[in-house]
């Protein structure tokens, strides 16, 4: 009897030891493999391209998801409370590096940790968003890529394509810090070229269709900064503006593709590649966020939607066409 009991106790003990041995092993494996936590603000073609670039940028630097690194991806669906819970989840999942795609996502991450390194994925102006002390010396746990777009070049192109235009309406959302900054830049650039400027600020995506109807009857051109709320509703904007044949100058390639007329823009995929590489350098210990300057792009490509130009009755001068990257097939 006694020895049977002893045997049972021993068996339990041995089983316990085996189980704990394996669990410990697993933890060790997880420690070897770094985790990259990615928080994307919302889905729209530009941010989706940036995320695709991030994955490839990490890969080019030797970090392959599922092989020697794990990506945990979350999409906040433009919801502030989701963004903060997801930030916390990414931290709880023991991310070694966090990446925020678009300003509201980066701000949510920054509010959740001042220790873990955060890489900014295409943030218009990290300083005015309160994310870094300066672009040259970020100073804290945050560095990354800015997608500040070449606003002056965009307006130079706009007046070349639309020499008769006298007024421009700037469309953006009041909820986004990034857009306020760029809208102010746009106003300066447009005024310098002699255009009259009016801002149309929407509180949420619900007001976009009606606002674009009003704009289309009041201004000659619609300008859109890198605003996530508007980018997410680009189809609506194009549908409404098309009714009065009002041309749209957005600030990125993906929005031209969806029915904008033209822009000078930074390739969204390239923004992602650069973000992924910066995250890889932090993972491998090559760089420290506090002393790594924010990466900015000097110039952009000329992007034209020729089908949309035809639809609006606009002839694109040959010299511009020959330099441009052509995208899109029109908005219908
Ligand atoms: N710069 C934007 C931000 O800071 C994010 C962004 C990147 C974006 N590319 C875009 C927004 C294209 C609209 C369209 O939030």
From TrEMBL:
CDD domains: PBP1_ABC_unchar_transporter (cd06325). SUPFAM superfamilies: Periplasmic binding protein-like I. This is ABC transporter substrate-binding protein. It comes from Candidatus Enterococcus clewellii.
């Amino acid at each position: 009897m006694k020895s049977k009991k002893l045997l049972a106790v021993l068996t339990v003990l041995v089983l316990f030891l085996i189980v704990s041995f394996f669990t410990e092993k697993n933890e060790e494996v997880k420690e070897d493999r770094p985790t990259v936590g990615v928080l994307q603000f919302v889905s729209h073609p530009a941010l989706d391209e940036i995320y695709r670039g991030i994955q490839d940028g990490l890969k080019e630097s030797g970090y392959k998801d599922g092989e020697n690194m794990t990506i945990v991806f979350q999409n906040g669906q433009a919801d502030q409370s989701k963004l903060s819970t997801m930030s916390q989840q990414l931290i709880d999942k023991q991310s070694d590096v966090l990446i925020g795609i678009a300003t509201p996502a980066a701000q949510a991450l920054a509010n959740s940790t001042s220790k873990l390194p955060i890489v900014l994925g295409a943030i218009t102006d990290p300083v005015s968003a309160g994310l870094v002390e300066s672009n040259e010396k970020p100073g804290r746990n945050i560095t990354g890529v800015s997608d500040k777009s070449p606003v002056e070049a965009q307006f130079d192109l706009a007046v070349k394509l639309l020499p008769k235009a006298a007024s421009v309406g700037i469309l953006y959302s009041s909820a986004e810090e990034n857009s306020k900054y760029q809208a102010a830049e746009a106003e300066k650039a447009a005024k310098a070229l002699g255009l009259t400027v009016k801002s149309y600020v929407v509180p949420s995506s619900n007001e976009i269709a009606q606002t674009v109807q009003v704009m289309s009857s009041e201004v000659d051109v619609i300008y859109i900064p890198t605003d996530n709320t508007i980018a997410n509703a680009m189809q609506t904007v194009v549908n409404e503006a098309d009714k009065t044949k009002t041309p749209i100058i957005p600030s990125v390639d993906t929005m031209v593709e969806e029915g904008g007329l033209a822009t000078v823009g930074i390739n969204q995929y390239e923004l992602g590649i650069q973000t992924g590489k910066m995250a890889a350098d932090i993972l491998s210990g090559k760089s420290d966020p506090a002393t790594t300057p924010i990466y900015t792009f000097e110039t952009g490509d000329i992007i034209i939607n020729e089908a949309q130009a035809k639809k609006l009755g606009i002839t694109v001068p040959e010299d511009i066409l020959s330099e441009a990257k052509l995208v899109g097939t029109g908005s219908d």
